[in-house]
Structures are given as structure tokens and as C-alpha cells.
Write a structure and sequence with these properties.
Layout lengths: L1 H33 L9 E4 L4 E2 L2 E2 L1 H15 L6 E4 L10 H12 L7 E4 L5 H15 L3 E5 L5 H10 L3 E5 L11 H20 L3
Parallel strand pairs: 1-4, 1-6, 4-5, 6-7
Antiparallel strand pairs: 2-3
Helix pairs in contact: 1-6, 4-5, 5-6
């Protein structure tokens, strides 16, 4: 019985140590990607969705959209994809609100902005983008989100086989360090890694 307990204790300690190492790796990834802006030519710019109110983007979403418009103006990709569905009772989607904002405020040509009106969270948004991108045979994406969110978006998109680059706003909503957001994104990456290894994602 004592031997069995020792084995169980060893296994528990090993699992805890593994979880700690993985968590540290995830936290480092979030920190690194939040401070590391990479841009190269790509097939498309992807703006991850955030809250919108009756078709008006929230400050966080506006900041993401403005960043995407800047990247587009610099000539890094020929098209912007806005992604995100809606909540019950909403009259429009995050993607449609984002597209309308880009057309109205930044005067982009309609054919240069495509709304992907799916995606309830980060993973389902990336899955929706993947479905669209596969039809276009796209391989490279520039991902636009908050600084703390960049690592998880990049991790998920790369798991679908894309070469990815990231950019986030350097100031304003979603750009600064937030301990709670940092912890959430770190644990989100750990959960994603474990889910991929276990085959549940």
C-alpha cells in the first residue's frame, strides 16, 4: 500500500511540475508576443472581433480596426477580414460593424473589406477564417487584436497551418498590460495546448 501511495504521490508531483512548466511557457509566449510586433507581406489582414453596440464598435474594437487600417495603408496585404458573430438581441454582428466602420471612417473600397459573420470566441473565429482562407488558398495572415490576446490568436492560427504575423495598437484600449487579462490568456494557451494534445480540439 505504501508503495502505491508513493507512486501516486510521484505522479501527482510530476503532473504539477509539468503544469507549472507549461504555464510558465505560455506566460512567456503571451508576454513575448504582446511586446513583439511582426509585419511582412501576407494574403490578408484579420481583425479579431470585440464588442459592438447597435453597429457601433466598442473602443477596443475601434482600436483594432484603426490598427488594421494602418497596416493596410502600409501595403502589407490587399484585403482586410473582420470576424465575429453577435449576441442574442444584437441587430448586427461584430464583423459587420467592423466592416462598416472601416468603409466609413477609413474610406476603404468595399471589395477590400470582407465580413466573416461567424465566431463566438477566438477559436471559432479562427475556424471561420480558416474556412474562408482555404477557398482562397491563402497561407499567410496578419492578425490584429489586443496586445495580450496576440499570442493566443497566433498560436491557434498556426495550429491550422498558417504563417502568421501580428500587430496590435501601441496605445489606447487593449494596448496596455493588464494582470487579469495576462493570466486569462496564459491559461487559455495552456488549455488550447492540452486540448490539441488530447484531441478534443
Amino acid at each position: 500500500m505504501k508503495k502505491v501511495l508513493n507512486i501516486a504521490k510521484t505522479l501527482v508531483l510530476a503532473l504539477l511540475a509539468t503544469f507549472l512548466v507549461v504555464s510558465v511557457a505560455a506566460a512567456f509566449t503571451v508576454w513575448r508576443d504582446s511586446n513583439f510586433r511582426t509585419l511582412e507581406s501576407a494574403d490578408a489582414i484579420v481583425v479579431l472581433g470585440a464588442a459592438q453596440y447597435a453597429g457601433k464598435p466598442s473602443p477596443v474594437l475601434k482600436n483594432r480596426l484603426d490598427t488594421a487600417a494602418e497596416v493596410f495603408a502600409e501595403g502589407y496585404a490587399p484585403v482586410i477580414l473582420t470576424v465575429g458573430s453577435n449576441l442574442p438581441g444584437d441587430t448586427t454582428t461584430e464583423a459587420e460593424a467592423g466592416r462598416a466602420y472601416l468603409l466609413e471612417k477609413h474610406n476603404l473600397e468595399p471589395e477590400r473589406v470582407v465580413a466573416i459573420t461567424e465566431g463566438e470566441d477566438t477559436l471559432t473565429s479562427i475556424q471561420a477564417i480558416d474556412t474562408f482562407a482555404q477557398r482562397k488558398s491563402w497561407k499567410t495572415l496578419i492578425l490584429i487584436s489586443d496586445s495580450m490576446h496576440s499570442a493566443r490568436v497566433k498560436t491557434m492560427a498556426e495550429s491550422f497551418g498558417y504563417v502568421t504575423f501580428t500587430s496590435s495598437a501601441q496605445s489606447g484600449p487593449g494596448s496596455s498590460f493588464d494582470a487579469g487579462y495576462f493570466a486569462k490568456e496564459s491559461l487559455g494557451i495552456v488549455y488550447f495546448w492540452i486540448s490539441r494534445l488530447s484531441g478534443t480540439q
